[in-house]
Specification:
This protein is an alpha/beta fold. Helices cover about 40% and strands about 20% of the residues. It folds into three domains: about 5-220, Aldolase class I (TIM Barrel), CATH 3.20.20.70; about 245-345 and about 495-520, Rossmann fold (3-Layer(aba) Sandwich); about 355-485, NAD(P)-binding Rossmann-like Domain (Rossmann fold), CATH 3.40.50.720. Helix 16 links the parallel strand 16 and strand 17 (about 400-405). Helix 2 packs parallel to helix 3 and helix 11 (about 250-260) packs antiparallel against helix 20 (about 510-520). The structure holds NADP nicotinamide-adenine-dinucleotide phosphate. The site of NADP nicotinamide-adenine-dinucleotide phosphate has 22 residues, from helix 16 and helix 19.
Length: about 525
Amino acid sequence: MTYLAVPISAQNPVLAREQAARAVAGGAEMLELRTDYLEGLTPEMAGRLLGEVRDVTGVPIIVTCRDRREGGAADYPESLRLEVLTTAVEAGAEFVDAEFVNFRQEHVRRTIEAALAPKPGCRLIVSAHDFDRPFADVRRLRRDIVEACPQAIPKLVYTAGHINDCFAAFDLLHEVEGNCIVLCMGPAGVASRLLAPKLGGLVTFASLDEASGTAPGQVTLDQFRRLYRYDTVNAETELFGVIADPVGHSLSPAIHNACFADLRMNRFYLPLLVQGGRDELFTFLDNVWERPWLDFRGFSVTIPHKHSALEYVHARGGFVEPLADKIGAANTLVVERRATSDGQRLAAYNTDYAGALDAIEEGMGITRCGLRDMPVAVVGAGGVARALVAGLTDAGANVTIYNRTIERAEKLAADFGCASAGLDALPALHAKLIINCTSIGMSPKVDARPVPSEVLKPDMAVFDTVYNPAETLLLKQAKAAGAKTIDGVAMFVNQAMAQFKLFTGQTADSDLMRNVVLDSLR
Ligand code: NAP
């Protein structure tokens, strides 16, 4: 079992009791009383607070009085910190946490062991922290702790400079029998916090709210519970994730997790911050590939990795959807279990173009055949435009690409055999469908529009790929002109629906997805 613990980092006992009650009401299964945050700390204050918090909450409690050198909040002397721990043992704490660097000192070890001897209900956590970087050898460090104190629960916490630094933590949790806590701090370490229940870490820590975290990269209790399906993740859970940099704004965890929950699937989708370029992505995917026990089954891929993801699947000899190849970008990777020498195969798809075409068909009330010979104006020549142009030309549409940087428009047009022009040619455009593939009109610059309103006509459809806001100025003006409108949320939902189908073989509830997207945007 993995406990979802919330550190209580209040400066006085009144606030600490209030935070503890709030944490347990929010779903915390364990509390860590960070007594080093208390002002004017005395052993009696810590013992009293422990009793009061237990009376109010009834959950197991770790008492910690962290040394400043290991991330503590105050410069309390070693003698006081030690007395706080022994008082907590005496007062019935379920766990006390001592830093390995201190525990190794003979007098500290003897004092703690003497306090614990008559209290078998209290377990000792021996912890080590590196706030700057990964430990040189995390396995060895765990062994050293176990050798120094066989009955202790080792807790190893280090800062991940990159998500690839998390794999040492995953390996250790995978290998170790018996209780252990291994977590990575920092934005690159979030996966280690979310995957603790999958890998059997004894505790993972959540912050009570955005403001009260005690370590960088902590996820809030509410996010753990509602967004990250904490209650349902276990050793058998299959994993999915979005590979991106930045990843914090991604709506994909919210929509895929909501659909997994809706269909009662033992699957979990997490944000995967993969910083750097091709090399870092390849290392990340190699790391996943070498660890089939992690049960990663699929990935959404977005900026800046869509091209490199495709390259990776080619390099692994996997399947690449032909149109994804032509677009030069994969936004979906599926890890298929196969009777190959590796027991698995990677497949790459692009659901951006399929999602966009589905949105167009729905919005215009046509089938894909209806796109044949249709004059379409695509504004923009970036990644999204490329996916759209590939899909549209594949369906036989007659596409003209308009872009600020004319050379980009010309290059894209040449790749897919269509026409191109600069933005100054927009007033003279002739099209049945106009598609905005630029970021113009996106929040916060919602008063901008990519196309002059004079060109918008009632016999047209206007599709804005921008999804924040859902109704852009372009779409408002198109609606006022009597044109049919298609919003970026429809494309986003359709590409996610297609991904979900590739991930699971099942169809998600598109209304649920759309509502989750709209809720998240609000
Ligand atoms: P990208 O590769 O960076 O391309 C951006 C495009 O916008 C380029 O053509 C660029 O022109 C043009 N552009 C940007 N600012 C401009 C300005 N001020 N004036 C004129 N043109 C401008 O980006 P992308 O990946 O294609 O994404 C484009 C948009 O698609 C995003 O902003 C997002 O809103 C939307 N999107 C929607 C979905 C969905 O599912 N609905 C998914 C992904 C993205 P230059 O070539 O001249 O720089």
